[in-house]
Amino acid sequence: MSLAGRTIVITGGARGLGLAFAYAIAESGGNVAILDAADQPHEHFYRLQKESGAKVEIYKSDVTNYDVLKATFDQIVADFGRIDGLVTAAGICPDESFLERSPESVARCMNINVLGTYYSAQLAAIQMAQQEPTEFSPRGGSIVLIASIAAYVASKGQQTSDYCASKGAVVALAKSLGVELAGKGIRVNSISPGYMMTDMSLDLCDRFPVLSDIMNNEPPMRRMGDRTDLKAPVVYLLSDASAYHTSDDLLITGGIHAGRLL
């Protein structure tokens, strides 16, 4: 699965899963444009930029502000010449009782997870639809929206009602856009990870042993997913290996979407 000669945009790519996707894309020959709200990326970003051999740049932006986001996409096109793929990894997961959740907290979650995904997909698709194919990239492109197992089942041990709703919206958006954009050569899919070993989830496991037990022992495969478990699925959906694959959601959960062991 090659991404040689292609430019992939990643939202929320300064650390965590987004940065793991950047490594996967660069390892597959692709160039990477990361946008993130963080002032500084994780130190591993600089290692990727220095050692990968790919063109890797980062842009400070805000997925909830359409004008700011559009200016960032315009700059990416100016710097890279085109956009062949998009991965929307920007997101937050508040943990608070539904009965106590404030309108401001709900709006922030929905703005980042849903509107930020929607705006990013729209801006990428506009560019994909108007650019010419190359020897490396066919007409159109591929959009991969990062959803969650929370789109299907409640987060056990956590109170994440707005997060669950937002990821359900992302899954539905991918299905709809895949149909609407197929005629323009643009494929749209989502990936719903289960419990993954990120800095945030590992911190939760350290602070709350009950969550550690849930995340490590309830998946039928009896472990949390590693970030590397998502690298191949992302590259697959971005590459020509998935040329006839659209409007789908890949469940990478260790089986927890089918049943829990505890």
Automatic annotation (TrEMBL):
This is Ketoreductase domain-containing protein. Gene3D superfamilies: NAD(P)-binding Rossmann-like Domain. It holds the Pfam family adh_short_C2. Residues 6-194 form the Ketoreductase domain. GO terms for biological process: secondary metabolite biosynthetic process. InterPro entries: KR_dom, NAD(P)-bd_dom_sf, Sc_DH/Rdtase_CS, SDR_fam. GO terms for molecular function: oxidoreductase activity, acting on NAD(P)H, oxygen as acceptor; oxidoreductase activity, acting on the CH-OH group of donors, NAD or NADP as acceptor. Keywords: NADP, Oxidoreductase. Belongs to the short-chain dehydrogenases/reductases (SDR) family.
